[in-house]
Design goal:
Blueprint (H helix, E strand, L loop, with lengths): L2 H16 L28 H5 L9 E3 L2 E3 L9 H9 L19 E7 L10 E7 L5 E7 L26 H11 L9 H14 L5 E7 L9 H16 L5 E7 H9 L7 H12 L4
Length: 282
C-alpha cells in the first residue's frame, strides 16, 4: 500500500468512527453516499460557492473510462477539509485571524482569480477579502501531494501581461518547464498560476497566498512528508519579496493557534471536532 493509499484509508477509517451512521458508495470505499456526512456538525456546505467551480466538486465525473464520485464526498477531500475548517467563519469574517491578518469582509470558497488568459481561470479553495493589503487566498491540500501532479504550463501563459508578468512567479514558468521534476510533492505550477491570477485581480496591493496542508501526527517518520516540507521552503525562498506573499502552514498548526482564542464561543468545540476528525497517525 502506497503512502497515499495508507493516508486515504486512515482518514476513511476515522470518518467511519466519528460518523458510524453514514452510508458509503458501493465500490468506492473512501466516499460517503451523502456529502453532509463528510461535514462536521453545524457546518453548512454553501453549495452556491461550489456550483460553478471548475473542480466539479459536487458532480459525478468520468476519468480514464471510469465513473468517479463527487470529490467533496471523499474522506480525504481537501475541499471538505477547507469547508470544515472555515465555513463557520463566513457568518463573522472580521473575527477570523489568518496568516497574520484579520478584519476580513467576506469569505468565499472556490473563488475565481482570472489571469486574463483563455481557458479555465485559477480557482482558490478560499478567498478571504480584507482591507487593502490584508486579503488571504487559501490553497488547501489533504493527500494530493502524495500522488503526483500535472507539471504542464499552457503556451498561453507566455503572453501574460500586467503585474504578474513582472514577478518571480512568472520567471519560474520557464524553469518548471525545463525541469518538471524539480518539485515532486509540491504542485508548484498550480501555485504559480494562483499567484499570477491574484496579481491580476489585486494589481495594486499585497495578498497572502496561504498554502494549507494536512499531514498525520507522525509525519516525521515518513520521507514523503519531509520532501513536501523541503519543497515548500525552497519554493517560498524563490518567490520571497513578491507582491503575492506565500505562507505555508499545516492544518494542525492552524487549529492549534485557534485553540487558545476565547472568541467566538463556538471555536473551542469546533477545533476539538476538527482534531477528532483529522488528527491521526498512520
Amino acid at each position: 500500500m502506497s503512502i497515499y493509499e495508507r493516508c486515504g484509508a486512515a482518514l476513511s477509517a476515522r470518518l467511519r468512527q466519528v460518523r458510524p451512521q453514514a452510508a458509503w458508495i458501493d465500490g468506492y470505499q473512501n466516499y460517503v453516499a451523502n456529502v453532509e456526512d463528510n461535514l462536521l456538525a453545524d457546518i453548512q456546505l454553501f453549495r452556491e460557492d461550489f456550483k460553478h467551480g471548475a473542480g466539479k466538486e459536487l458532480e459525478w465525473t468520468r476519468h480514464l473510462g471510469r465513473d468517479c464520485p463527487p470529490k467533496l464526498q471523499a474522506a480525504h477531500s481537501s475541499a471538505a477539509l477547507a469547508v470544515n475548517t472555515f465555513a463557520r467563519w463566513k457568518a463573522t469574517p472580521p473575527e477570523l485571524a489568518l496568516a497574520g491578518n484579520n478584519g476580513f469582509r467576506s469569505l468565499n470558497f472556490e473563488a475565481r482569480c482570472p489571469t486574463g488568459l483563455h481557458g479555465t481561470p485559477p480557482h482558490l479553495d478560499l478567498l478571504a477579502k480584507g482591507p487593502k493589503g490584508a486579503s488571504v487566498a487559501v490553497e488547501s491540500k489533504c493527500i494530493e501531494y502524495l500522488n503526483g501532479h500535472n507539471t504542464d504550463f499552457p503556451v498561453s501563459y507566455d503572453s501574460l501581461q500586467g503585474p504578474g508578468s513582472q514577478t518571480e512567479y512568472f520567471k519560474l514558468i520557464d524553469s518548471l518547464r525545463a525541469n518538471p521534476k524539480a518539485f515532486k510533492r509540491l504542485d508548484a505550477p498550480q501555485l504559480v498560476k494562483h499567484a499570477l491570477g491574484l496579481a491580476t485581480c489585486f494589481p495594486d496591493e499585497q495578498v497572502t497566498l496561504l498554502y494549507l496542508f494536512w499531514e498525520p501526527v507522525n509525519w516525521h517518520l515518513f520521507r514523503p512528508f519531509q520532501e513536501h516540507r523541503d519543497e515548500m521552503a525552497r519554493f517560498a525562498e524563490v518567490v520571497a519579496g513578491c507582491q503575492i506573499r506565500i505562507t505555508c502552514m499545516s492544518y494542525p498548526d492552524l487549529w492549534a493557534a485557534w485553540k487558545g482564542q476565547a472568541k467566538p464561543s463556538w471555536l473551542g468545540p469546533q477545533v476539538a471536532s476538527l482534531t477528532d476528525r483529522y488528527l491521526l497517525t498512520i
